[in-house]
Every structure is written in C-alpha cells, then in structure tokens.
Amino acid sequence: MNAGIDLLNVLKSRAVTVAFLWAVAAVVFTLIAEISPCRSEPANGFEQERRHMVTTQLRERGVEDVATLRAMATVPRHLFVPDSLQRSAYADTPLPIGHGQTISQPYIVAYMTAMLALEPHHKVLEIGTGSGYQAAVLAELTDHVYTMEIIPELATSADNRLKAAGYTSVQLRQGDGYNGWPSAAPFDAVIVTAAAEFIPPPLLKQLREGGRMIIPVGSPFFVQHLMLVEKKNDEITTRSLMPVRFVPFRRKE
Amino acid sequence: MALVLISAALIGFQLEQMQLLAMIQWHHFAYLVISVALLGFGASGTCIALFRPFLLRNLDWLLPVLLFVCALLMACALPFSKGMIETFDIFFVVVEPVQSISLLLSQAIYLLVFFFGALPIGLVFIAHSHRINSLYSANLVGSGLGGVGAVFFMGFLWPLDLPAVTAFLPWAAGCLVATEVRRILVCSTGLLSLVGIVVLLVQPQQTRFSEYKDIRRILDIPGAAIVAAQPDPQGQVHLVRAPTLRYAPGLSLTYTKEIPEVSGVVLINGDWFGVVNDAPPRFYQATTTALPYAISMRERVLLLQAGTGAEITLAQEKGATTITAVEPHQKAARLSWSGFGLNSPFTNQEHQQEYVFVQPRTWLARNQTKYDLITLPVVGRFGGGSGVMALQEQYLLTKEAITEMWHSLSVKGVLQISTWVDTPSRNTLRLAATIREVLEEQGVNPALHTVALRSWNLVTFIVKRSKLTSGEIEQVRVFCNDLQFDPILLPGLQTEERQRYHTIADPDFFSNLDMLSSPSLRQILYAGYAYDIQPTSDGRPFFSQFLRWQSLPDLTRLFGERSVSFLELGYLVVLVSFLQATVAAIVLILLPLLHVGRPGDRRLQGWAVLYFGALGLGYMFFEIMLIYKLTLFFGHPLYAAAAGISSLLIFSGVGSRLSSWVSSQGVGLAPIALVAGILLLLYSRILSPILSWAMVGSAVWKSIVFLLVITPPGIIMGMPFPLGLAQLAGQSKRQAAWAWGINGCSSVVSAGLATIVAVEFGFSVVLVMAGCAYVLAAVAALLKSQP
Fold first, then answer.
1. Domain A47-241, what fold?
2. CB contact under 8 A, B259 and A241
3. Cβ atoms of B278 and B264 closer than 8 Å
4. What's the complex ipTM?
5. Would you call B421 and A240 a contact, using CB atoms and an 8 Å cutoff?
6. Dihedral through CA B306, CA B376, CA B316, CA B251, nearest 10?
7. What is the pLDDT confidence band of residue A2, given thresholds at 50, 70 and 90?
8. How distant is the Cα of B606 from the closest Cα of chain A, in angstroms?
9. For chain B, which residues score pLDDT lower than 50?
10. What is the model's pLDDT at position B566?
11. Fewer CB in 10 Å around end: N or C, chain B?
C-alpha cells in the first residue's frame, strides 16, 4: 500500500517537475530575448532619442549652457558606441567601449563641457579620448581640440569615428597623457576623462593662467563628483562639484 | 572512510569557492557560498523525503553513482559558471534584475555539487539510522579535515586548479562504496567522472577579474604585464609591471618636478596592495602625509599595514632612527622586493629597521614600545568604494584599535590617518567621529590634540598624544600655505582658512564636522545624517558600511535609480542574496515536503518544527559569528572560516559521537539544548575578552586557547540534532525527513540573517540570538515530553 502511494507521489512529483522545468525554460528564453542586443537600427538616425536625451537628462537636471546643449543635440552619440550598443546610446548611463573603458553618461559629458566655459577661440586638451565622443562635443564649441589616448586600439578607432562623423579638426595623438601636449600648450581648458589619484604636474604647467581643468572622481562607470581646477595668480585652487547636489536629510526632532 | 572523504570534499570545495569569488568579485560573496552549500544539503534532504523508498532500494549502485556525479560536477563547476561570475556587474544589481538572475544562475551549478554530495550522506544516515551517532561524527570530522586541508593546499595550488583536485575525493569515495562494479552504470559513471576530472585538471583554467578590480585597470595600460604570481590562502598575489604608471597620492598641486614611473604594482586578489619603486621617490615631502615630520622630528616610526613599504622612504629621508613596518601579508610584501632583486625595502642600513609579518592589532597588543609616529594606510578607495568593501572587517579602524595606538604613542608622538575625500562625506566624518570619541574616553579635549588638513582629494588627520603647542600650530599653518593645503581642524582655526585652496561641494560638511565636537550635537548628527557615520567597534568592525535602510528611498529619489554608487552596494548584495536564498530554501526544501504531509498534523509533531528550526538557526548563527570574530584573532577571513568551520564541525562530530552515551544516561533533549543555550549566552559575555587576552601570544598559543574555547560549545552543539533525529526517525522516517528539511531551511536563512544582524547590531547580538535559539529548542523539547 505504502509503495503504491509512493509510486503515485513519484509520478505526481514528476509531472510537477516537468511543468516546473518548462516554466523555467520559458522565463530563461524570455530573459535572453530581452537582454540580447537589438540588431536592427531605427531608421530615423536617432534624432528623436537625442532630443529626448537633451530634454530629460540634461535640461531637466540643470544643464543650462546653450552652446553645450546645442552641441549635445548635434553630435550623433550612437556613432561613438559599439554597434551592438547603439540602441542604448542615448540612455542615461555610461556604456562600455572595450579595453575596460567607457563612454560617459550624457549628463556627465554635458556637465563637464559646460563647466569648461569654452569660447570659440579657446584651445582645449582632452586626456583620455576613449570613443571620441567628448572630443566631438568639444569640437562643436571650438576648432582647437587636442585629444590624447594611451590605448593604441582606442586611439585608432576614435580617430576613424571622428573623421567619419566629420570632426576633422580634432587633433588626436596616441600616448601617455601624463606629459600633456607641450608643443600645443598653453591650453585654456584641460579635460581629464580618466580619474587619477594625482594631477600630473606637466598638465598644470600647460594650463594657461586663468585656465580651467576638469577631472571626474569615481569609478569609470559611476562618477561621484567632478573637480574643477583653476589657475589664477600663481595659485591653483580646486572646487569639488557634485553632478547632483547632496542634501543631508535631517529628521524632525 | 567514504563519508569522511565526501564530507571533506564538500567543505574544502566550499572554502575554495569563497576564495575564488573573493578573487573574481569581492569578499561579501563568501556568505552566498555558505547559503548555496546549505541549500544543497537542504534540497537533498527533501529529495530523500520524496523518493526515499526508491533511493533506499537502489542504494548499492546509487551511492557510487551519486558520488561520481558529484565529483564530475565539482570539477566542471568553474568552467561552466565562470563566464556568468565574471560578467556579473555588481553596480547594476539594483536596477537590472537580470544581474540578480545571472548571480543566481551562476550559483545553480554549485547548488548541484552540494546536492549530489549531500544526497549520499543523507541516504547513509537514513539507511543506517541505528548508527547515526558514529556516521554523523564521521561526517563532521571529515568536514573539519576538509577545511584544514583546503587552506593547506591553497598555499601552493592555484585557486582555479583546486576544485579539480578536490574532485578526486568524492571520486575516491565512490570507488570505496562501489560494491557492484559489474553494473554498467556504475562503471561508466566512474570512468566518465575520472576522465572529466583529469581533462579539466590538465587543461589550464583561466579567469578574468571583475572590471572594477584594480588589476583590470592596470593591465589595460599598453605594455602592462603580470611578471610574477603566487597562490596564497590570503589571496592570489600578482606583481604587475606597468610602464607609464605613476602613483603620488595626496600630492600638492604646487609640486612641479617629475613624478617617476613605478617599477611595478603588487595586487592581492586583483586589489591594490602597493607600488614598487626603483629609486626612492622625492615627492612624498609634498604630500599631506609629510605633516608629522614638518612639525617635529620623528625618531621611532611605526608603519601599520605597510604594504610594499613605499612610505619607508619618507621616514628614512626625515631621519627616523628606528622604523618598524608591520604587514600581515608576508608573501605579497616579499614578492614586491624579490621581484626586483631586493632582499628588503630598506635601502639605508644606518638605522634600526625591521619588517614584521604579523597582524597590526597583534603587534600593538604585544609590543610595549612607544612611537613618535604611527601611520595607517589610506582609508577607503579613491573616488569612493560604493560599498564594495562594506562587509570587510576593518579592525584597524575601530575605537579599540585607535585606543591601542593612542597608548603606543610617546609623549610627543602622533598618529597619522588619511582618507580619500568622498562626496557626500562618509569616511572623513566617521574617522573624525572615531578620533573624537576615543580621545574623549581618554579624558582629553580632542580639539587640542587633533589636526586635519585637506588636499584636493585626501584628508589627513594628525592626533598628538600631548597638547599641540602654539609653535606646532604655526608650523601646520606654514606647511599648509607652502603646499596649498587647507587646514580643516586646528586649534584657533578661522572659517576662511578651511577652504582657501580647495572648495568642497557639500556646504554642510564643515557644520557636520563641527557638530562632532559636542556629544549632544554628535548624537543628533548620527541620527539625522543620510549615512551611518558612527564609529565602529571590534564588535561591529564594518568601517566601510555606511548604508542606512531608512535613507534608501530618499537617496534613490535624489540621485536617481542609476546613481547606485551613492547607495553603498555591498550590503545591498547581501540582502539580495539573502532574499534569493530564503525563497530558494522555501521552494527547494519546504514546498516539496508538503508532498509527505503538512507539519503539525499527525505525521509531524509541532515540537519538531520548532526544535529543528531553532537548532538550524542557533548553529549557523554561532558559526557565522565565529568566522567574523576569528578574523581579528587569526588575521584573515579565510583562516577564520577554515578554523571556525573545521573546529566547530570536528567538535560537533565528537559531540554527536558522545550523544548516544549521554542519552543512555537518561539525559533528555531539553537539558542538552538548554546547556548549549546557556553556554552560548555566557560566551556572548566572555568570548571577546578571552580572544583579546590571547591575541598577544604566538600562533601556537592562540591555537591552544582557541581550541579550549571552542571545545565545550562545539561538543554540546553536536548533540541535540542527532539525538532529536534519532528519536524522530524511530517513530517515522517521514517525520525525520521533514525535520531534516526544516533544519536545512533555517540554516540557509540564518547564514544570511546572521551577517545582517552582525552589521546592524554587532557580533554579541548574533551570539545572544544563537543562545536564545538553543533555549527555544529546549522549550520545544519540553513540549515533546508533554502528554
């Protein structure tokens, strides 16, 4: 009798197990389909996505510099990300571009650009070209953009992307950013897109009197604050900037 | 013998996975491994409950087959899962459910290993329940030996090779129990398993570190290469040569000379350990860490957690006569010198200099020397850690540690601690709060003994044993003006001095810092700040854990859901894995058991639910607490885990063995559980003082004391489970199955819960809860004896 009940129980549990496995398989396939990169590109060239990005990610968060907003609305960000990530190019997130590097979140790019307060005649040096996107945004504001990338493969692909997108005025050099670009110095602005534990003395030397330097602080994926360095009257001062201002929450007494 | 082998393999494999996950990802995943292992054990119990007649009927051929499958899975687990583990992105775990599922799936293969390993153990227990005491004893002793063996082999085998080596144990166990060698299934499984193990053993395994690990960042530099690597139980050591890499933390922006490229970087488990320089760099005198030398001569210098000894240069340059560098990781330090043909980092042999390889806290407790300067490594991670170190015990930053350092200072001596600037401030405020509270407890006015100054990215605190003189205060000002640093704590400081060169983003930072000076205002700040910034203690040593659950909704709203770096992730991951493990325990262990009837009906008496549930909670709470407490005592989480798990299981094995004798003397379940509970409650008061007292001794002395401490609870805690199970199995094997499942489920839940309770309330509360759980089990046993 007991054996009979056991056999029945085994059969029942087998049926339950099979059903459960089918359910798991369905969930897994759904997830795979969801996370797989989309192979087809929207036919509109992403103008709508770019406009949406400028409105919701930049303007609504306090980026007000008109020139920067115009530059962000013009540069085709999707051309500066890996093909497989083009659908996410305008999302509110950094994206991997290979070699452990990222293309910064649009908001950070815009915020850093605005903080440089560039004029059309300004000369700007970028350390860490990455995909070339930041250089392209800078090139919308001035014709004097110099950019350096230490990783040869990234330097080559960024050069190709910049040229393909029409940013031919950008000067790109593969090499160690520590030494800066002495032959083109002094610079009105320096933008260091890779965080470092110290600011290389040659870069400070190549910054023009009255010039501005901006450095992100944090992991490549999550900038926590930005550092604005200014050189005035032989003094170098820094100002920590938070992309989002932190307000301590005080409890009611 | 087979039982000893499979038990040893399962615990060894568990420790290896903890080591591997700590290497590829981070330390907090170690507790996930414990949960998965317990889940596998619990699920195997459920399987036995459901299919017992079939399994027992075919035990002869099933036992070797299960052991062979376990061996094969053990060898294959890493190659199958490493892709998912490597690509798991901790920073997306909150906003992308796929990440949590990826984490869950990566653990599925490990679940199967423990399931197939635990199944034969459970079957043997049920089939030979009349010998449960000796079998349970063999199981626990084997587990204990597995823990010790795993740590031993980690000293010279690569973490990636260990699982395949360990897989030979269940395979050998399978051979030992394979009585029906003629059966094709047994032979073919055994052969297939052996071929699989050998193939995977000879095939070199490779894995990638998480892209957030320092080693990945460094290897991306053109020309960077690993030039030496060594396995070690404390973590795999790498020496990387990286051309163009320069390192100058806290450097003044006024420094205009060349920063030399470093010769190499040493990393442990892919995390930064220190740099090696060909020639002593000259820039250290332009960093915030040069302040102690600027205000006075420092003759006797103690560098705690000295790493590669890079800061020895500054002490030598400034004329220190006695330099003591204390570093717990001997292999990493030695590799940093031997990799470049040096015998030690001391280039100047004129003065008394020594490198000591012990835990800094042990050195402080043992040594009576008074120092003119004690330095600590920089606190936190550059740019903020985002909580990845949240569950790492940092015993060098607790109030007790700072107090010990205070007492090790000479009259003019200073303690120097630096922290990376983080925004919003967490490390700086917690460090300031710790110094304040310690000095107040020592009966001095902190304001007259403390200096803090700030560069653009580093805050350095100086704590002087005697009051700062007016001359010293003036020298601090001169030092700051010369190098363009801002003093932020200094007697007689003017408001405008604090941000002369470096303006910070948070306008409330200085008012918060000043609130710490008043005990009443300090409490208001602690209660109202968005992060937990209260000082840590040896009973709750999680310096990098800042998350406050009540702030989470506000932080998410303020920074947006993608700004997870402000949310302190490490602790969140523990919560996610705890919830996953709890759900999995219910689905895999308890729900299937409904098949054999509900608890509480005539098939399972109510007392057993309470009894076995409480035992699971109590045992795991004690085990997890032990691992945490022993980290300070033995100096590393892995040593702590191996010593804690192994000794507890071995002594519980002895207890299990003795339980039948105890039972034969007429002692019931309730008194035994009650004694265990009272003992654990007693330990909540005496364990910490005993371990602190014994910490000053040698390794042998510490081991003897530890064994004496662990023996009583280990033995007594090993008795209630086999006694209860034997009594229940005597009435009904189905009831025994339910008891096994409930015990497994509560063990899974308690492994994660113990960590959460430890972080929130401290280790002593975990221990009190463990004691209460055993008292609850005693009450449940009393219920059983009621008519």
1. Rossmann fold (3.40.50)
2. no
3. no
4. 0.75
5. yes
6. 110
7. very low
8. 24
9. 95, 603, 787
10. 57
11. C
